[in-house]
Amino acid sequence: MTSARENIPRRAQHRLAHRAEPDILLGGERLRIIDPLMVRGAQNIGIAEKNAHLWALPTLSVPAGEFDLVRTLESGQCFRWWRWARDAYWGIVGSSVLVIRQSRNDLRVSVCGGAPPADIATFINRYFDLSRDYRAILRHLRRDEVFARLAPRRAGLHILRQDPFEVIISFIISANNHIPRIRSIIERICRVYGAPIDTPFGRAYSFPSPESLAEARLSDLRVKCGLGYRDVYVKRTARAIADHLALAEWATWPTPVLRRRLLQLDGVGEKVADCILLFGFHRLEAFPIDTWIRRAMKELYFADRSPSLGQIRALAIERFGPYAGVAQQYLFATYRTTDERNGKRSPSE
DNA sequence: ATCCAGGTCCGAA
DNA sequence: TTCGGACATGGA
């Protein structure tokens, strides 16, 4: 049996041993997975060493326009990116491990592990949706005065094009969970069911395939991965997709049809379906209504009276139309960061 | 230690 | 259709 620590650099192991932040992992190892490569918080240990590796990687430059890397990666639509030192992020996309930094209007991209995409520039362009005119979208949204009052002038927050299956499973896990824990659970299922990807910084894991999750033991999902009662949702949905569902074909369906189909998946309700539409199928009109958005819309448009889901959705379509999902991301970002500044009011009030 | 989280499901009115 | 309660777990 291989120890989970084997793949972690020695100095990180030392740091790990002194963290005293327990989590459950394989084979009795205890490790809290916040950052699989342990590069976050690198101010203590090994930063010079890591940076030396980092700087040695070949780097590709991609024009970024008004795109804002940090705003986009911190917007809650993805779960597998981590901040690296100050200005860089590393993340796992498909079977590649990427490091990305932004300086003004260009992105510097390094592949530090896994199978690099055939054409990295095209890949990055697509993943970050760099060709779309988000300035124009924001201008369109700002025609609503209420939205214009709180939205930033600068665009920059893009909707990523992520893998549909990864998004489906990730947002099933998101239900009745908070973001740090969602990330932690996702890392554990990747570690148990994903494919290893070696990098100069340690070993990362890809997101598991539908087949491997379909064959998971429920008790492993529940206990090792910490899924709780969502174990059956994940397993059944993975099983359905592995057996007879062609997500590539779903991508060609009209949004209302696709939405109805998503709602039939185990663990997928209205909110999660809309997240999948927006983040997994790039349907920019989808408007996921979570506790934050509900509160934002209530304050902004309903004078603090409690509107029904239907009322909120109708208003979102009316005000934001085909770009409701982009508006949703700005509302989410604004309200969540406001809340952090104000020190955690309960979102339900 | 205690609360509660990017909700969903299920059964009852 | 709408409403309310249960629900596993662990992060803060």
How is this structure best described in words?
By secondary structure, the chain is of the alpha+beta class. The protein has three domains: about 1-50, no CATH class; about 55-130, TATA-Binding Protein (2-Layer Sandwich), CATH 3.30.310; about 165-340, Hypothetical protein, domain 2 (Endonuclease III, domain 1). Helices cover about 45% and strands about 10% of the residues. The chain contains 17 helices and seven strands. The chain has helices spanning about 10-15, 45-55, 70-75, 120-125, 135-140, 145-150, 165-175, 180-195, 210-215, 220-225, 230-245, 245-250, 255-265, 270-280, 290-300, 310-320, 325-340, and strands at about 60-65, 80-85, 90-95, 95-105, 105-115, 195-200, 200-205. The strands form two sheets. Strands 1-5-4-3-2 form a five-stranded antiparallel sheet. α7 (about 165-175) packs antiparallel against α11 (about 230-245), α7 (about 165-175) packs antiparallel against α14 (about 270-280) and α13 crosses α14. The model is unreliable at about 1-30, about 40-45 and about 340-349 (pLDDT under 50). The chain binds a DNA duplex (13 and 12 nucleotides) through α7, α8, α14 and α15.
Q: Kindly report the average pLDDT value.
A: 86
E-strand count: 7
Shape: globular
**Major sheet size, sense and barrel closure:** 5 strands, antiparallel
Work out the helicity level.
40-55%
Strands ordered across the widest β-sheet:
1-5-4-3-2
Strand coverage percent: 5-15%
Alpha-beta content class: alpha+beta
